[in-house]
Amino acid sequence: MNGSNTGASSTSGISGSSGTGELVRRLGLFDAVTIGLGAMIGAGIFAALAPAAAAAGSGLMVGLALAAVVAYCNATSSARLAALYPASGGTYVYGRERLGPFWGYLAGWAFVIGKTASCAAMALTVGAYAWPGQAHAVAVAAVVALTAVNCVGVQKSAWLTRAVVAVVLAVLAAVVVACLTANTVGAAHGLGSGVPLGVTFGGVLQAAGLLFFAFAGYARIATLGEEVRDPARTIPRAIPLALGITLVVYAAVALAVLHVLSPDRLADATAPLAEAVRAAGVPALAPVVRVGAAVAAVGSLLALILGVSRTTLAMARDRHLPHALAAVHPRFKVPQRAELAVGAVVALAAATVDVRGAIGFSSFGVLAYYAVANAAALTLTSAEKRPPRAVPVLGLAGCLLLAFALPLSSVVPGAAVLAAGAAVYAVRRRTRPDQNM
Fold it and tell me: What is the pLDDT of residues 127-181, one digit of tens each?
């Protein structure tokens, strides 16, 4: 273990004209939890709730619970691994160290591709709420602005995320109060009649897979492991804290929205929380919700770009991506070239993709990523404080089940992208056998 870790550290410490070097540990527990919250809450409530309702019908809450169980297993496995390997890259590093270079590479590939789609979805969410008529243009502008923020230091990103999380939680609290105190109740829309509406096992699984997109933000904490103070103590505490808070918020908002909207009406809503407050008889709150949604998506996008750039940094250090992207800025101590490269790709995607399609594609990639994390956790020994074996086993099985329960329009391109990544790895290994791959 120590030998592997030392090797990773020495790689990160290369210096020279390219400007590579080590990142600085500036983030404490509060910062780490806040970054995780910014990624999760922004992504889920305003983007995944409606398509999940379309899949699960009145089984939405069951799908949410199932997604939470899989997320808990993944979080537990990731937290233990992150404490052992506190370097940028997350499961890319864990897979490489525990399962071999190929599995680490495949996890990193799945994460970068899947989360690039997530970034585009969140950027488009900003545009859809802030200026619906120019959603793509606003999305690109948001990516450019947040990439600039990330390029001047992770601490500044953490400060901005604190403000975003505070605003979003205040807006969501207002939505919950407005819906739960409304005279219109779910029974009036068929929810309380005791008759399940459009519930199938496959639909609930599909909803859980889509909602998992919303829970995946705790990966930002692990991928920032090289910038967290006392990571062996901080990361295992920050991940379950962020996940637990998010689950409580999600459950409260979902129940409140279902209190005033039927599952069918929720599924059809383009702005479900705004629709819910109107149905609750508080239309004046709808503009506030729109602002909150835009702010939430900004926070999620900020944290997502942070995570993708750090995995890009780790893969560039091992030359799975251009080594120039491994540079760390000498003043700001951030992987600025990786930040700029990720920002450019996300801006291009935000100008061209569809939000709901991006969510499904992202979910497939992220579930593949966490399947590798759980497989890596299965190799831990009791001396390494391995979690109960049932946790990574359930997490691995759950990730695979939810990934292939997604719509075919997500599974087919997702599997094709993973296969393409594996083919690239095989070709590079054959043509460059001298490199450690």
Answer: 877 887 888 999 999 999 989 987 876 555 667 778 888 888 999 999 999 999 9
190: left (phi over 0), alpha (psi -120 to 50) or beta: left
HSE (side-chain half, CA atoms, 13 Å) at 212: 39
List the Cα angle 18/21/23 in 5-degree steps: 135
313, amino acid identity: L
d(CA 8, CA 88): 10
Classify 20 as helix, strand or coil. strand
Angle (deg, nearest 10), helices 390-405 and 60-84: 130
Cβ atoms within 10 Å, residue 424: 13
Please, are residues 27 and 221 in contact by the beta-carbon 8 Å criterion?
no
Long-range contacts of 172-175 (CB under 8 A, 24+ apart): 172/41, 172/45, 172/249, 172/252, 172/253, 172/273, 172/292, 174/285, 174/288, 174/289, 175/253, 175/256, 175/257, 175/273, 175/276, 175/277, 175/285, 175/289
3-state secondary structure of 327: strand
Rounded to 5 degrees, φ, ψ at 379 are: -85, -5
Structure tokens at 171: 């807006």
Read off φ and ψ for residue 54, nearest 5 degrees: -65, -35
Q: What is the DSSP string of 353-417?
A: --HHHHHHHHHHHHHHHHHHHHHHHTT--GGGTPPPTHHHHHHHHHHHHHHHHS-HHHHHHHHHH
CA dist 161 → 82, 399, 419 (Å): 22, 28, 35
For the chain, what is the radius of gyration of the CA atoms? 21
Provide the terminal-to-terminal Cα distance of the chain, rounded to the nearest Å.
Answer: 18
DSSP label at residue 27: B
Which residues neighbour 72 within 8 Å (Cβ) at sequence distance 6 or greater?
240, 243
Tokens 């009145």 belong to 58
**Cα 240 to Cα 76: distance, rounded to the nearest angstrom:** 7
Contacts of 357 (CB under 8 A, 6+ apart): 409, 410
Distance CA 374, CA 81 (A): 10
Question: What is the rounded distance in angstroms from the CA atom of residue 277 to the CA atom of residue 257?
Answer: 8
Q: What is the pLDDT of residues 365-383, one digit of tens each?
A: 999 999 999 999 999 999 9
pTM: 0.80
Buried b (16+ CB within 10 A) or exposed e, 1-22: eeeeeeebeebbebeeeebbbb
